[in-house]
UniProtKB/TrEMBL annotation:
PANTHER family: HISTIDINE AMMONIA-LYASE. One of its GO terms (molecular function) is histidine ammonia-lyase activity. It catalyses: L-histidine = trans-urocanate + NH4(+). Belongs to the PAL/histidase family. This is Histidine ammonia-lyase. The gene is hutH. Its EC number is 4.3.1.3. Pathway: Amino-acid degradation; L-histidine degradation into L-glutamate; N-formimidoyl-L-glutamate from L-histidine: step 1/3. Pfam families: Lyase_aromatic. It is found in: Cytoplasm.
Length: 513
């Protein structure tokens, strides 16, 4: 794993993934250290003056009208961290906390926050030591930054609160810092505020969601193709010239992926050989590229927002290059919150269309010759009947999770912070939605591969055969009498989640878009 070197101009999505999920080390560049020192000199000069400066010599939020004397300022910075570390509920996942810490350090290294170089170095040291502060589910309104989550991280830098060690054991943060040889920080003017005031949690979750959805959208293109094959549908609707006349990039990419998976299939284009020939396939089959493609284009917009945010320095007040310290509203999470909600909407719709294809595979009146519920001996066996119930329950929850969090706002801080983004909430529900989407695609995969295997006498596409072989090697059984179904579904879920579906197909098709 490479070392991520932070400069003053932001970072990349891959760096976030590497640090959050894979434990990449973090270093500060000489450029960043110089920028930190220059900005700190500005804050120190302002701190020496009698005029009040927000975050340096005043209280916070609705208490910003009070001027804080020199002897109380270190206490002021400690107090903001302690008082704002007010999270409640379950612990947030380790990867989310690491992303949160890394992205805050990214902004600190921009040289716009006024934090001393030694504080930034301690942040890097904590990440590199594998120490992960305990952060709770509730406490961020997505405005003035992810306040409570970031406060719990800052608290650990001070040697207070709880954290998880590299071995996964939760201990007092002070003990973990001492064991790693890290000296707790003593915060000075502006530093407590600067460590709390960013969109880092919601941004980190957005970046990881985009990485997960990239794999899931490719997986969904594959399962849609497998379902089309199992239903003896036609791949002619996937031909490039049809998608060129409606030039949405995502639609064209999804159609091309499906066409690549179906190349060489002996199951497609039998739809006019039946007793009641179909003129065309049902929407859930025929319109798969349009739905998945629209989701891909939404992801492209979300990726653009994430990249812009990665290049941003989100804090209030900020130290400008000309030496001014200025208040601003850049901590408002609206840009990130909106795309988090957009992604929950498209994920729900992708899950919905996948479930409709599964239901079609199981219904003998619409499956074009497959046995009821893909059962071995229908009536004695129930087949995949209840697997579709589980999938439907997941889809129903995804529809609830698609209700936008960012459409809500609740005033706080005595009406000083009277409009908030709820971006943290949008990010948390998107993570749940992505987990559900993975399971939904796994159920479609399970049904579609069984349907293909039940088309005896017809030869599936080479890519389909590769999927079936890999799935069976992963412990997911094929057609046969009823058995305990949950282990098969769990194994299919893990197969999709770990990228096994895409990995099985791409050696045959080449890289999918």
């Amino acid at each position: 794993m490479h070392t991520v070197v932070l400069g003053t101009s932001g970072t990349t999505p891959q760096d976030v993934i590497d640090v959050a999920r894979h434990g990449a080390r973090v270093e500060l560049s000489p450029e960043a250290v110089s920028a930190l020192a220059a900005a700190r000199a500005v804050v120190d000069a302002l701190a020496a003056k009698p005029e009040p400066v927000y975050g340096v010599s005043t209280g916070f939020g609705a208490l910003a009208t009070r001027h804080i004397s020199q002897e109380l300022r270190a206490q002021l910075q400690r107090n903001i961290v302690r008082s704002h570390a007010a999270g409640m509920g379950p612990r947030v996942e380790r990867e989310v906390v690491r992303a949160l810490m890394f992205l805050r350090l990214k902004t600190v290294c921009s040289g716009h926050t006024g934090v001393r170089p030694e504080v930034a170095q301690t942040m890097a040291d904590v990440l590199n030591a594998g120490i992960t502060p305990v952060v709770h589910e509730y406490g961020s309104l997505g405005c003035s930054g992810d306040l409570a989550p970031l406060s719990h991280c800052a608290l650990a830098l001070m040697g207070e609160g709880d954290a998880e060690g590299p071995d996964g054991t939760v201990k007092p943060a002070g003990e973990l810092l001492a064991a790693a040889g890290i000296e707790p920080v003593q915060l000075r003017e502006k530093e407590g505020l600067a460590l709390l005031n960013g969109t880092d949690g919601m941004l980190g979750m957005l970046i990881m969601a985009l990485a997960d959805l990239d794999t899931l959208y490719k997986s969904a293109d594959i399962t849609a193709a497998l379902s089309l094959e199992a239903l003896l549908g036609t791949e002619k609707v996937l031909e490039p010239e049809l998608h060129a006349i409606r030039p949405h990039p995502g639609q064209g990419a999804s159609a091309a992926n499906m066409l690549a998976v179906l190349e060489g299939s002996g199951l497609t284009n039998h739809f006019q050989e039946e007793e009641a020939p179909r003129v065309q396939d049902a929407y859930s089959v025929r319109c798969a590229p349009q739905v998945a493609g629209a989701g891909r284009d939404t992801m492209a917009h979300a990726r653009l927002v994430a990249e812009r945010e990665l290049a941003a320095a989100v804090d209030n007040p900020v130290v400008l290059r000309d030496g001014q310290v200025r208040s601003n509203g850049n901590f408002h999470g609206a840009p990130v919150a909106y795309v988090l909600d957009f992604l929950a909407i498209v994920a729900a719709d992708l899950g919905s269309i996948a479930e409709r294809r599964t239901d079609r595979l199981l219904d003998k009146n619409r499956s074009h010759g497959l046995p009821p519920f893909l059962a071995d001996d229908a009536g004695v066996d129930s087949g995949l009947m209840i697997a579709q119930y589980t999938q439907a329950a997941l889809v129903s929850e995804m529809k609830r999770l698609a209700v936008p969090a960012s459409a809500d706002s609740i005033p706080s801080s005595a009406m000083q912070e009277d409009h908030v983004s709820m971006g943290w909430s949008a990010a948390r529900k998107l993570r749940t939605a992505i987990d559900n989407l993975n399971r939904i695609i796994a159920v479609e995969l399970y049904a579609a591969t069984r349907g293909i295997e039940l088309r005896r006498g017809l030869t599936p596409a080479p890519a389909s055969r590769a999927v079936i072989a890999a799935l069976r090697a992963a412990g997911v059984e094929g057609p046969g009498p009823d058995r305990f179904l949950a282990p098969d579904l769990a194994a299919a879920d893990a197969f999709v989640r770990e990228g096994g579906l895409v990995a099985a197909v791409e050696p045959v098709t080449g890289p999918l878009a």
